[in-house]
Write a structure and sequence with these properties.
Elements lengths: L1 E5 L46 E5 L8 E2 L8 E4 L11 E10 L8 E6 L17 E10 L12 E4 L13 E2 L10 E9 L5 E9 L1 E6 L2 E2 L15 E8 L7 E10 L1 H4 L16 E9 L3 E6 L5 E4 L2 E5 L3 E5 L12 E2 L1 E2 L6 E4 L5 E7 L3 E4 L5 E17 L7 E7 L2 E2 L2 E2 L10 E5 L10 E3 L6 E9 L5 H7 E8 L5 E5 L2 H17 L17 H14 L3 H13 L7 E2 L9 E2 L7 H13 L2 H22 L31 H22 L3 H22 L11 H9 L6 H17 L14 H7 L3 H9 L7 H5 L34 H9 L2 E5 L4 E4 L9 E8 L2 E10 L2 E8 L4 E4 L7 E3 L2 E8 L14 H6 L1 H11 L10 H8 L11 H4 L10 H14 L13
Parallel strand pairs: 3-8, 14-23, 20-30, 38-42
Antiparallel strand pairs: 1-17, 2-4, 5-6, 5-7, 7-8, 9-16, 9-22, 10-15, 10-18, 11-14, 11-16, 12-13, 12-15, 16-17, 18-21, 19-20, 24-33, 25-26, 26-31, 26-32, 26-33, 27-30, 27-32, 28-29, 34-39, 35-36, 37-38, 39-40, 40-41, 41-44, 42-43
Helix pairs in contact: 4-6, 5-6, 5-7, 6-7, 7-8, 8-9, 8-10, 10-11, 10-12, 11-12, 12-13, 17-20
Length: about 1000
């Protein structure tokens, strides 16, 4: 099909002179630096008023032109890198130069915008049409009227915004089935002389790679990504002007099964969305006046590629004896289909791309004689394999896994996913021109690769392998360091689990027969992901699918896209519809995020309200609860200590409150008041039903206290203090090991701080025994595990059916490390207001964080030097920060670099506390370790886990004098054979707590 239509007329405009060159979206910077991007260079934001930088359209990255990834009215943002002290933006001028693709632009238009806002400013010009480009630049002025220099221009270009823009029709390869070779859809075309611009718009049912004359177009992988295909399909636009020069060309598109037709879920469902892969594509050639459209139709053909099998779970097989894009002699006619009923939407999220490469650490020979390549890092992507030898027909097999178990590849956690790639060699490889295998139609989560059939020794294999890390092309947004290397590695592990699971939906894991967009996981982790990466566009896209699947009763799928077939009104998982958009809004300051989701948020809260009824308590029904409580049996991950009704009602209050704030931000006072009143009623019912006057909460476990404190559900200082004390005591009584699941774990450290127990929070984070955040790090983890004990201390993989070594959810503690420990919190949406209140000491002597916020770069670094605390803070232009340091009065900082030195209060200094009570002893890491060591192995009760046994004896003695421990730990003589235990404890207590009071006579036993 070839059609023609005239170019759009130029838009008359007035203003300063513009360029006479056609508007064009030039290729962006390569993505391979995203993995290792360094923090922005330190620069003082106080100085002469500088030209705005890092211009952004919507949530797209600022370093790339926006090509086909927006609607008609894109929002605009910019940063001011430096300005005089006290400067505030009072107005801005935006200059827009626009015109049809390939045509000369119209004269510039200039728009004056009043006010301080530089984030997500509404498009000031008339709406853009399909196939229209615009270059825009900005300058700003303060109250004195002095203008900054103009920024460099940024380019935005629309794609096809309406169904009517598609004269093309989808085409499919008749007879091609899931297990057959990947089909190649082919079109030969002639590009006329005088062509000034060429665009390729395309999408597919399946995943695709597009080639012009054998050269790949673009850097996307696994395009068009995974959405709720029945409702919306994402369209990509490529500038192919340099590839489609005048003359003859061949356009070839390889289609893979992907999520559309490949296996999905542990049931290994096939062809969930359809049995036939399809391609919808249009090449549009413009000479500045007319545009020729060459779309998919009956004139295309198809042929088999050399990819003989492909599946996201199982892997890819390629036969290098065959031409990669098939043979012309094997071409067959295509069949055409109707346009999909689903919306054809611009791609607003960064699609998967190769964000970096990892070279292998070593080649291992396993006990059974297998060869295994260790990449040294658990990652998501595929291997790039070069083979310098081998015979025609030889097969090299690559089997992937995350861990070794007793020296062999640990494949049991993969369940039904084969995770195996195979390449059949052509036998043409030499040292100078090796054969190359890059399986781009599959995805693996792995650190180790078992290699069979490679024609070379270990050194040759090591030189032939590179892992390509595939993730959404997001910009890194945080860099953290501290005086605790294991904690630094924990943050790095969280970062890796973020990029490994952010492909096109936020998955639970990237390796086994699952890889689903579980709502509960991202509901808990969204704030952390948005701190580590500029993940707003990614999460906005996913939330669209989640909201679209909602039923009128408010219920939502527990995975999105929904391939488990069934909505549920479920706390935490359902609450993702409020938690994720709210987290994006707080991180970016974009109210459009809330506008797109607020009706779905309200529908969910209304649904819970209907179930709760007059009691305002969310009771009964299906709940995951505090999933993966470490005390739950491996086969019963929902069997948590936290009462599910208490957990659910807390979420009800949380989501109702968020919904109220969303409506208030959007200017609907009536609906805001309705949901605030509802939230208040739920909080009151929660307090009446579940909380005592002293702050004790029903089911008396860490998760319920963490919810109440972190979400401000408690109404009196007495309740806050009591809940904080009880939460800290529960942490102590677990020997500072984790006792919470998916729901509670992200909240506990922040809740402890709010309850006045910051030292306990730090001690919890620094614990190394299982279950703890640092236990996996001590076991060599390079990503966050699904279970605290995914790998047991003896090297066995957890026996549970559900065990992954790359789940981001439990890494949400990283948010606390950034905002509380390092002390750089965003309290005004988008970073307009910051709070710098580092939790100093408590086992840390220094910490620092650099955050790339929407307004600019912010930094905090603190260090202890004896009794002195040195703090350095950088605040970007357009922001302010409240500085709260121990022993000093709070102060407000404007933009700039600020340094302070204060004297540390005595209670925060090392050795500043005197041990008098059992609680004091437990809080002293070294003293507690000595006490545990004193009892270890001296009696049968203290053989398996002496710390847990000892805390069990001390459950009701935390406020007692520390000298009660020898008696309590030996049951006051009622357990035979404890004499050695008591003697050892007496000696240690006398040494570490000489000032402790004696035990009252009535309690000596």
């Amino acid at each position: 099909m070839t059609t023609h239509h005239p170019g759009l007329p130029n838009t008359a405009a007035t203003g300063s002179s513009g360029s006479d060159a056609p508007l064009t979206a030039t290729p962006g910077a390569p993505n391979t630096s995203l993995l290792t991007a360094a923090a922005p260079d330190a620069a003082d934001p106080v100085g002469p008023l500088a030209a705005p930088e890092r211009l952004r359209v919507d949530h797209h990255r600022p370093d790339k032109p926006v090509l086909g990834g927006t609607g008609p009215t894109p929002a605009l943002s910019w940063e001011v890198p430096s300005a005089p002290v006290g400067w505030t933006q009072a107005r801005a001028e935006v200059e827009v130069v626009r015109g049809p693709v390939g045509a000369l632009p119209a004269a510039p238009q200039t728009f004056t915008l009043e006010g301080a806002n530089s984030l997500f400013v509404p498009w000031p010009a008339p709406p853009l049409s399909s196939r229209e480009g615009a270059a825009w630049r900005v300058r700003v002025a303060g109250e004195d009227g002095t203008w900054s220099p103009w920024s460099a221009p940024a380019v935005v270009e629309t794609g096809l915004l309406e169904h009517d823009d598609w004269p093309a029709r989808p085409i499919t390869a008749p007879g091609n089935r899931r297990a057959d070779p990947a089909p190649v859809m082919v079109r030969r075309l002639t590009v006329p002389a005088g062509t000034t611009a060429a665009r390729l718009h395309l999408t597919a049912g399946g995943i695709y790679e597009v080639f012009i004359d054998g050269v790949k177009v673009g850097a996307d992988e696994l395009a068009p990504g995974w959405t709720e295909y029945s409702r919306r399909v994402l369209v990509q636009t490529h500038d192919v002007t340099t590839a489609l020069t005048p003359g003859e060309h061949e356009l070839a598109v390889v289609l893979g099964n992907g999520w559309y037709r490949g296996h999905l879920t542990w049931a290994m469902r096939e062809a969930v969305y359809g049995k036939d892969l399809w391609l919808l594509a249009q090449v549009e050639l413009s000479d500045g006046q007319d545009t020729t459209v060459i779309g998919t139709d009956e004139a295309w053909t198809w042929r088999p590629s050399n990819v003989t099998a492909n599946d996201l779970y199982n892997g890819q097989s390629t036969d290098l004896r065959l031409p990669a894009l098939g043979e012309a002699e094997a071409e067959s006619p295509v069949a055409t289909l109707d346009l999909p009923q689903a919306a054809l939407e611009p791609t607003t999220l960064p699609l998967p791309t190769v964000i970096g490469e990892v070279r292998p650490a070593e080649v291992i020979t396993t006990p059974s004689g297998r060869r295994v390549v260790d990449l040294g890092q658990n990652l998501t992507g595929h291997l790039h394999l070069t083979v310098p030898g081998g015979r025609a027909g030889d097969v090299v097999t690559l089997r992937h896994a995350e861990v070794l178990e007793h020296g062999e590849l640990g494949t049991r956690p993969l369940r039904n996913a084969e995770c195996t790639d195979r390449v059949t060699l052509a036998g043409t490889g030499t040292a100078d021109r090796p054969e190359v295998f890059t399986p781009t139609l599959t995805q693996h989560g792995f650190r180790y690769v078992e290699v069979d059939g490679f024609p070379g020794d270990d050194d040759a294999l090591l030189a032939s392998v590179t892992a390509r890390v595939v993730s959404a092309g997001m910009e890194r947004a945080a860099w953290f360091t501290s005086s605790q290397p294991l904690v630094d590695r924990l943050v790095e592990n969280t970062r890796w689990s973020t990029i490994d699971n952010f492909i096109t939906v936020p998955t639970d894991c990237p390796q086994r027969d699952e890889r689903l967009g579980w709502t509960g996981d991202i509901g808990a982790f969204a704030p952390t992901s948005l701190s580590l990466y500029d993940a707003a566009a990614f999460l906005n896209s996913w939330t669209k699918d989640l909201a679209a699947a909602q039923t009128p009763d408010g219920a939502l799928p527990v995975v999105s896209p929904d391939v488990l077939e069934g909505n549920k009104l479920t706390c935490a998982w359902g609450d993702a519809i409020t938690l994720v958009p709210w987290a994006v809004y707080e991180a970016t300051g974009n109210p459009a995020v809330l506008a797109a989701s607020v009706e779905a948020m309200s529908c969910f809260v209304d649904g819970v309200d209907a179930v709760a009824g007059a009691s305002h308590l969310w009771r009964g029904g299906f709940q995951f609860g505090d999933w993966l409580d470490p005390d739950a049996p491996p086969e019963e991950p929902a069997a948590a200590k936290a009462d599910p009704d208490v957990v659910a009602t807390a979420y009800f209050a949380r989501s109702a409150g968020i919904t109220a704030r969303a409506w208030a931000i959007l200017g609907d006072a009536e609906r805001a008041a309705h949901y605030e009143a509802l939230a208040a009623s739920v909080r009151e019912a929660y307090l009446d039903a579940y909380v005592t006057a002293d702050g004790l909460i029903l089911s008396d476990c860490a998760t319920v206290y963490a919810q109440a404190l972190a979400w401000d559900l408690l109404d009196t200082p007495r309740r806050v203090t009591g809940a904080g004390q009880r939460l800290a005591d529960l942490v102590r009584l677990r020997s500072f090991r984790i006792s919470t699941g998916f729901v509670g774990t992200p909240l506990v450290p922040a809740a402890l701080v709010r309850g006045g127990q910051a030292a306990t929070a730090a001690r919890l984070v620094l614990e190394r025994e299982c279950p703890s955040w640092l236990y996996p790090v001590t076991m060599g983890a390079t990503t966050i595990w699904e279970r605290w004990d995914s790998m047991l201390p003896n090297g066995d993989i957890n026996p549970g059916e559900m065990t992954s070594f790359n789940h981001y959810a439990l890494g949400a503690v990283t948010q606390w490390l950034i905002t509380d420990l390092a002390g750089l919190d965003v309290v005004g949406a988008g970073g307009r207001a910051l709070r710098v209140a580092p939790q100093v000491g408590h086992g840390f002597t220094s910490a620092s964080v650099v955050r790339r916020l929407p307004l600019g770069t912010a930094r905090v670094a603190w260090e202890l030097d004896g009794e002195a605390l040195h703090v350095r803070v950088q605040v970007p232009v357009g922001s302010s920060a409240e500085l709260v340091l121990p022993g000093a009065a709070p102060e407000t900082l404007g933009h700039g670099v600020h340094e302070r030195t204060v004297s540390l209060p005595a209670q925060l200094r090392d050795g500043g506390r005197t041990i008098r009570t059992v609680r004091d002893l437990m809080d002293d890491d070294a003293a507690w370790a000595r006490v545990v060591e004193a009892v270890a192995g001296k009696h049968g009760a203290y053989m398996a886990d002496p710390a847990s046994t000892l805390t069990g004896f001390l459950t009701h003695e935390l406020g007692s004098t520390v000298k009660v421990i020898p008696g309590a730990a030996t049951m006051y003589g009622f357990i035979p054979g404890m004499e050695a235990v008591k003697e050892a404890l007496d000696a240690v207590i006398a040494e570490v707590a000489p000032e402790a009071a004696e035990v009252p006579a009535a309690q000596r036993g």
